[in-house]
Design a protein that fits this description.
Layout lengths: L14 H18 L3 E4 L2 H5 L5 E5 L2 E8 L15 E7 L14 E6 L2 E6 H11 L1 E6 L8 E3 L7 E6 L7 E6 L1
Length: 172
């Protein structure tokens, strides 16, 4: 079993802990809802961008769990009105939006909003101006944000944009 416990060199706050806590909450809720939960291997987590494989009633699904995040690393509080989507990683590889997860589970104050990854790609294509690049995270709503000196590419979308594509919503 792979447990992520190494802090990313760019994580100066508590992003590692936020992610681990969200993943743990997701796994608990999934089990409470009757799903068998298996943690991803290191390769599955890092290369294929999924945290768990869940199965129930003949369904087998890979899930990538996303914790509530700050809009900027400089802000103190996490929020759940906006979510980041990742096109390219800091390692200059495909981001989780193009990984092998079937589902993306976005943490919110009540639990998780779960969407099919492929449907999320459609939402991103509809709303994000992929040709518009910004260098300030506060300007990243529906635009591609890249941090200075890093190859990653991410964008913010509104959490409400997920509503039409909800696969399910799991409450705490």
């Amino acid at each position: 079993m792979y447990t992520r416990n190494k802090r990313n060199k760019y994580d100066k706050n508590d992003s590692l802990e936020l992610g681990q806590n969200a993943e743990s909450r997701f796994a608990s809720i999934a089990q409470r809802n009757g799903w068998v939960v298996v943690e991803a291997s290191k390769e599955g987590n890092i290369e294929d961008h999924f945290d768990y494989e869940i199965s129930k009633d003949g369904q087998n699904l890979k899930v990538d769990v996303k914790s509530k995040k700050r809009v900027s690393r400089k802000t103190k509080d996490v929020q759940d009105d906006l979510v980041w989507v990742e096109f390219r990683t800091v390692r200059n590889t495909k981001g989780w939006l193009f990984g092998s997860a079937d589902l993306i589970a976005f943490e919110n104050q009540n639990g998780f909003k779960i969407v099919e990854r492929k449907a999320l790609v459609g939402v991103v294509n509809k709303f994000v101006k992929l040709h518009v690049k910004v260098s300030n995270p506060a300007d990243a709503l529906y635009k591609v944000y890249t941090r200075k000196g890093r190859p990653d590419e991410i964008a913010l979308i509104k959490t409400s944009d997920l509503t039409p594509i909800l696969w399910d919503e799991w409450n705490l």
